[in-house]
Amino acid sequence: SFGTSFFLSDIYIAGEVLHYQGGSPVLFEHLFWFLGHPEVYIVLLPALGITSEVIATNSRKPIFGYRAMIMSILAIAFLSTIVWGHHMFVSGMNPFLGSVFTFTTLLIAIPSAVKAFNYITTLWKGNLQLNPAMLFSIGLVSTFITGGLTGIILGDSTLDINVHDTYFVVAHFHLVMGISALYGMFAGIYHWFPRMFGRMLNKNLGYVHFWVTAICAYGVFFPMHFIGLAGLPRRYYTNTNFPLFDDLQNVNVLITTFALIGGAFQLVFLYNFFVSIFYGKKSVMNPWKSNTLEWTAPVEHIHGNWPGELPEVYRWPYDYSNPSHDVDFVPQNVPMKEGEEVLHH
After folding, report:
1. pLDDT tens for residues 230-277?
2. Domain definitions of the chain by residue range
3. Would you tell me how many other CB atoms lie within 10 Å of the CB of residue 219?
C-alpha cells in the first residue's frame, strides 16, 4: 500500500496478522483533495461549454475569441489538477507548499477571466434573444464572476486562514460551482429540449423559474459572505449554543427562507418539464435558428437521425450575422459561396 493505508481489517497470512502502517491525517487530506478538487471542475466545465453555445446562438453573434475559449477551458482543466492544496492551508502542511498552491490557485483566475470576458464581449451589441436558456446562461456568467472574486481571497493562504471553514467558503463554492453548474444544466435543458422531445417547454413558466431561482440563489449565498466574515463556522448543526453568534440568527433565518422558496420553485421546472414532454407545443425543426448539425435533423426521431445521406460540414458552427448572407444564421451544412467572407475564428 506504499504507506497510504488508513484502515485495514485484520488480514491473516500463514496464521500471522498482516502488519500494516503508514498514513496520516494530512496525507489523507492530500489524497482526498487530489480527487476532490478536479472533480468540481469536471462538474463545471460542461456548463461553461453549454453557455458558450447558448450565448452565441441567442446573441446572433460568433462566440468572441473562439480559440482563446478553447485554450482557456483546457488551461482550467489542467490547472485544476495542481491546486488541491488550497483546501489545506490550515491543515499543518509545509507553509512553503502553501505558497506554491497559492500561486497555482491564483493562476487559474487568468483562463477563468478570459472566459468571463469573452462571454460578456459576445453579448455586447448582440441581437439578444432573452429566452429562458439565454437568461440562465447570463445568470451563469453572473455567478461565475461573483463567486470567482471571492475565490481570489480563499486562494491566498494568508487571507484564507481568517475565513477557512466558515460560511464565507460555503458562499464562494456554491456560487461559483454549485449555482453556476445548475444554471448551465438548466440552460442546456431549455435549449435542447425541443431536440430531445420534439416539443417546446412553456416559456412563461421558464421565466418564472429563472427569476425566482436567481433571486433566491443570491438571497441564500450573498448574506453568507457576511456571516462568514463574522466568523460563523460551517458544518455546525446549530449555532444557538454559542452566544457569540446570537446576532447572526436573523440572517440565518433569512437564508433559510430564501432556500425554501428557491427549492420549492424547482417544482415549477419539474412540472414544466414532464407536462411539456407530453402536452407541450410541437417544435419546429430549428426553433432557435441555430447553426449546429443537430438542428438539421427532422423533429421526428428516426434511425440514424438523418434520412438518406449524412450531412456534410462546410463551415464552423458560429456563422451568425455573416454579412455574406441575408439571414443571421448559416447552418454548418450550407456550402460556402464563391467569394464569401469567412468570419474570424
Report:
1. 999 998 888 888 898 999 999 999 999 999 999 999 999 999 999 999
2. 28-279, 290-345
3. 16
The one-letter amino acid code at 198 reads G
Adjacent-strand bridge partners of 17: 12
d(CA 322, CA 325): 6
Please give the grid coordinates belonging to residue 12.
491473516
CA–CA separation, 101 vs 85, rounded Å? Answer: 6
Cβ-based neighbour number of residue 199 at 10 Å: 17
Instruction: Provide the pLDDT confidence category of residue 6 given band limits of 50, 70 and 90.
Output: low
- Please indicate, yes or no, whether the overall pTM of this predicted structure exceeds 0.85: yes
CB 126, CB 137: distance < 8 Å = no
- DSSP 8-class letter at 85: G
Residue reference for cell 422531445: 197
Quick one: DSSP state of residue 286?
-
The domain covering 28-279 belongs, at the CATH homologous superfamily level, to Cytochrome c oxidase-like, subunit I domain (1.20.210.10)
How does the average pLDDT of the chain come out, rounded?
Answer: 91
* Residue 157 in grid coordinates: 493562504
Mean pLDDT of 281-285: 94
